[in-house]
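name: query_chain
kind: protein
chains: 1
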Amino acid sequence: MRQKRKRFEANKSLDHLIEPEKPLYKNIKGKWNLVYFQNNHPITLEIGCGHGAYTIGLAKLFPERNFIGIDIKGDRLWKGAQEAKDYALQNVAFLRAQATQLLEFFEENEVAEIWITFPDPRPKTRDIKRRLTSMRFLKLYKTILIQDGHVHLKTDSSLLFAYTLDLLQRQGIAPYNYTRDLYGSALISNHFGIQTTYEKRFIAEGMQIHYLCFGLK
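structure:
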């Protein structure tokens, strides 16, 4: 608890983190490139970014793109925002918000790409609508994505993976590509060697990593 309080206090001075009570929090919608990044580069979101491993990793690899990690946990976001500061990354931002609030922070067609990395699979039937690939969230993603925008899902959950594939099929959406064993497939290069803390743990336990890429327009 003491460490969390220290991180919450440190968050107040981290420019890479946009959270409640900071000026941009209520005024950033539709202005990410104009006001924050000050360029016209495509925007990639990491939904439920946790410590921001993918956000930071991708930002280092692709300086010609902008990256935003979204999570509600301020103590987790501290790590990503601090790392962005330490590396002086100009193409990174972190947003403290719920995924359900996407339309409060992004205009239509403002985002080029979305990554969903190892989300809670929400296995109980009553929690289906809380899955980050449920119809509820796909509608949000579709709104903010540009034409031909991509959504990437990485998960260890066979249940979530099968659910997502089935939902896309019922919506008439054909995935660009997918695999039930990322590390044993030709799609291995699609994740750029970036691994989250959870992913490293799952791999060490011998679990297969599922990967799926699809569009919504």
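note: Residues 53 and 130 are 23 Å apart (CA to CA).
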